[in-house]
Specification:
By secondary structure, the chain is mainly alpha-helical. Helix content is about 60%, strand content about 10%. It is built from six helices and four strands; from the N terminus they run βββαααβααα. It has a two-stranded antiparallel sheet with strand order 1-2. A two-stranded antiparallel ribbon has the order 3-4. Helix 1 packs across helix 3 and helix 1 packs antiparallel against helix 5. It is globular and about 45 Å long.
């Protein structure tokens, strides 16, 4: 969900959905800001990646969880996301022509997913299979629902930001 929260009046919020990026008038300049959005197909690719790898870990071997965990750590620690980087090569149009997702929302979601995958990986390695399935299942559920159109993490972040503004 590409939600930009703005406070028009105290305790009132408006949401601007899928606001297009403003195109630079001339070519890229060194002082140009990085985009604060990500093309939706890349976000969906990451969600599908999470679903597929976690399901593979459940049905083949829990060690497969290392792959989405390290991908998440890379995205959070170094701001380099392998799935997004690989996915960019397969975009058929210019990235600016796709619907956009907010980077801050995606980073928040990545934190939640990486922590839950890490807990799942830890639980499996300590022999707590049920707990490993629960933590991994939470990520699968959230990623699957997000693929269908409702971003649970985005909603949680929105409610948190609304709450912090009101307090």
């Amino acid at each position: 969900m590409n939600d930009t929260i703005t406070a028009d009046k105290p305790r009132e919020f408006t949401i601007e959905r899928d606001k297009p990026l403003e195109q630079p008038k001339s070519g890229k300049s060194n002082g140009q800001k990085k985009s604060s959005t990500i093309p939706r197909p890349l976000v969906q690719a990451n969600r599908a990646f999470l679903d597929v790898t976690i399901l593979a870990a459940f049905f083949i071997h829990p060690a497969i969880l290392i792959l989405p965990f390290l991908t998440g750590v890379s995205a959070l620690a170094f701001r380099w996301h392998p799935v997004i980087k690989i996915g960019q090569r397969f975009l058929k149009k210019s990235p600016d022509e796709y619907r956009r997702e907010d980077k801050a929302d995606q980073r928040f979601n990545q934190w939640i997913a990486t922590i839950l995958i890490g807990l799942s990986l830890g639980a499996f390695s300590l022999g707590y299979q049920t707990l490993g399935y629960i933590f991994g299942g939470m990520v699968i559920a959230a990623a699957s629902v997000a693929l269908m159109g409702f971003c649970v993490g985005c909603y949680i972040r929105f409610k948190y930001m609304e709450w912090t503004y009101q307090n």
